[in-house]
Each structure stands twice: as structure tokens, then as C-alpha cells.
Amino acid sequence: VRLVESGGGLVQPGNSLRLSCATSGFAFTNYGMNWFRQAPGKERELVATISSSGTNSYFRDSVKGRFTISRDSAKSTVYLQMNSLKPEDTAVYYCNVHIGIRNHWGPGTQVTVSS
Fold first, then answer.
1. Model confidence over 81-105: pLDDT tens digits?
2. C-alpha atoms less than 13 angstroms from C-alpha of 89 in its C-beta half-sphere
3. 16, 83 in Cβ contact below 8 A?
4. d(Cα 6, Cα 14) in Å, to the nearest integer?
5. What's the DSSP call for residue 51?
């Protein structure tokens, strides 16, 4: 299982970023996918989830209405579109999939929201 995030960077408050997570090594269409984030000195937290079919999604309250999650089965890739970014969104963002009894993580991508 391999997960590789990309798309992070430094942006000003109010701007947007789209994160991508390219996956391989497992049957992508069979699993829900997750985005987590971890800010300095804080615990890792779940940001968004998308079901295996892409039909259902979940967002933590602090990002509802600003973030969307999507997936492309042809590319085995999951996306996190982040709009109206705030300084408190600053964190390392991780892609995650839970398969069997194991959690699999990418290396993460840094998102910094600052003026």
C-alpha cells in the first residue's frame, strides 16, 4: 500500500488549495478514504472521509462548507479541495486508508495559511 500526498504550500487566508493523494497497492474502489491533519503540538485529527463509492462524505465541523472531498477511481486518487482557508487550517495533511486491522498513511503535505 502506498499513499503519496501533494498540493500543499503557503497561502494567504481566504485562498484555496487542492490536495491530492495518489494511491497504489490496494483495490482503491473497495475502500473509504480519509484526510487527517496534525498541527504543531496538537493531536492528529480527522478532517474528511469519503466512502468507497464516493456517494457519502463526512467533514469535521470546523471545515464544513469550506472543504470538499472527492475521488477518481480511474486515477486511484483522492482529493481534498480547501477553500476559504484560515490560519487555523495550518497543519500537515495526511491521506489515510484503513485496510483490515491496519491503518496506512502517506508522508503528509504541509499546508501553511498565513498573511
1. 999 999 999 999 999 999 999 999 9
2. 31
3. yes
4. 20
5. -
**Which of the four pLDDT bands, split at 50, 70 and 90, describes residue 43?**
very high
CA atoms within 13 A on the CB side of 31: 21
46, 36 Cβ separation under 8 angstroms: yes
**Three-state DSSP class for residue 103:** strand
Q: List the grid coordinates of 77.
A: 486518487
How far is 35 from 70, CA to CA, in rounded Å? 11
Phi, psi (deg, nearest 5) at residue 88: -75, -5
Q: Which three cell numbers stand for residue 16?
A: 484555496
